[in-house]
Inverse folding.
């Protein structure tokens, strides 16, 4: 009899943590969730992620509140995860710049190990634009991007390296500031996601090239880099992360809620404004992508000679 009681007690002690975690996921969320975005209000990232957040709010039954934290090459939201409680109520957009950070800056955390990856949601469509009346073609020029060590910055530097030309880079906090700068004549060209689309359609800017595998439907006359003889494709996937140690049941609840939010027509339509598409990766798939990208970005940083001194 005593042996049977001990077996039951052992089984209960093993099951208790699992049941507690399950219950935590089932009851989550009970208050608003904060989603930190890496770029300013009014740009393509902000507009599309607010659409996703609105949809997720309806699925999860609590508000998903967007907070903009631009600067530092899009890495501030991921840094904020390092001091946030691992309870699922603080989430962050994870741009590719996060995986470059340890190679260029001294930090005390690991982008692969110290973020719980929820899911990937989309990727940028990139290109380079100049004022509509500019005679400029790729060559020696001043250009702006959405920040130092962002994908637009590093890809443009890689293009310049392949072409054997020199560029003067001027960083901005996001697409809205960058658009104002090029329309105002402060820079000669801009490398960005397709947040520049409304200005092109209004006749104020002209697209020199785009960076995807194929031409963009919205700009059929703009060649890809590969068509120009430059073997580069850049679409920069990004998704949502949580603090390390967030319970798996909570991660699953977030994953399921945001995945359903991705499938809503309003989100797909918001992405289409910028030639972006839903780009889903599961929590496991996104974590694997993070590990692989971390290694690829090291090679890019070293190739461009931008690695921090050892």
């Amino acid at each position: 009899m005593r042996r049977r009681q001990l077996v039951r007690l052992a089984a209960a002690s093993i099951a208790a943590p699992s049941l507690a975690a399950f219950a935590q996921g089932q009851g989550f969320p009970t208050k608003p969730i904060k989603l930190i975005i890496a770029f300013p209000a009014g740009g393509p990232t902000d507009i599309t992620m607010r659409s996703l957040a609105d949809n997720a709010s309806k699925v999860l039954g609590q508000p998903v509140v967007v907070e903009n934290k631009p600067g530092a090459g899009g890495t501030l939201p991921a840094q904020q995860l390092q001091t946030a409680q691992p309870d699922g109520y603080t989430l962050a957009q994870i741009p590719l710049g996060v995986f470059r950070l340890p190679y260029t800056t001294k930090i005390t955390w690991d982008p692969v190990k110290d973020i719980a990856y929820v899911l990937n949601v989309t990727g940028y469509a990139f290109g380079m634009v100049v004022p509509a009346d500019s005679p400029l073609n790729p060559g020696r020029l001043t250009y702006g991007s959405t920040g130092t060590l962002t994908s637009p910055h590093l890809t443009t530097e890689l293009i310049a390296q392949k072409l054997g030309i020199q560029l003067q880079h001027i960083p901005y906090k996001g697409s809205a500031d960058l658009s104002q700068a090029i329309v105002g004549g402060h820079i000669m060209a801009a490398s960005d996601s397709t947040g520049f689309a409304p200005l092109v359609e209004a006749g104020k800017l002209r697209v020199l090239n785009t960076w995807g595998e194929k031409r963009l439907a919205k700009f059929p006359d703009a060649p890809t880099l590969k068509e120009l003889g430059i073997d580069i494709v850049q679409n920069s996937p990004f998704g949502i992360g949580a603090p390390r140690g967030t319970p798996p049941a909570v991660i699953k609840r977030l994953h399921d809620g945001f995945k359903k939010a991705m499938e809503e027509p309003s989100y797909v339509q918001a992405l289409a404004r910028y030639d972006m598409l839903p780009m889903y990766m599961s929590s496991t798939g996104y974590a694997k992508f993070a590990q692989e990208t971390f290694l690829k970005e090291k090679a890019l940083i070293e190739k461009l000679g931008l690695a921090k001194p050892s």
The domain at 126-210 is CATH 3.40.190.10 (D-Maltodextrin-Binding Protein; domain 2). Residues 15-23 have pLDDT under 50 and may be disordered.
